[in-house]
Design goal:
Layout: H1 2-12, H2 14-23, H3 27-69
């Protein structure tokens, strides 16, 4: 009867299950509590790792856009004179605009 109660208790009420597990002094109780603690620690570690990846990704995105916007581009351009279908090259040093 005690095994059935321990099996059905989590379905009814988590606090009742925890009280029953803490009240018992058996090897099975120790293993179940150790397993639950380990499972909670692993879940917390996975959530922390994924949250850190999201935070780093979100934090680095604006910096990348800002860096791209602040990139200094040359104010002059020259075409390849040998490229087919291209206009003649501009004079070197001529500002665009």
């Amino acid at each position: 009867m005690g095994d059935v109660l321990l099996t059905l208790a989590p379905l009814r009420d988590a606090s009742t299950f925890l009280a029953l597990m803490l009240a018992g002094q058996t090897f099975t109780t120790t293993l179940v509590l150790l397993g639950a603690t380990t499972l909670a620690a692993v879940a917390l570690a996975l959530v922390a790792r994924s949250a850190r990846a999201v935070v780093v990704d979100v934090a680095s995105a604006p910096a990348g856009r800002r860096r791209h916007a602040l990139t200094v581009r040359p104010p002059v351009t020259q075409s390849d004179p040998d490229a087919p279908g291209r206009p003649r090259p501009r004079a070197p040093g001529l500002l665009l605009g």
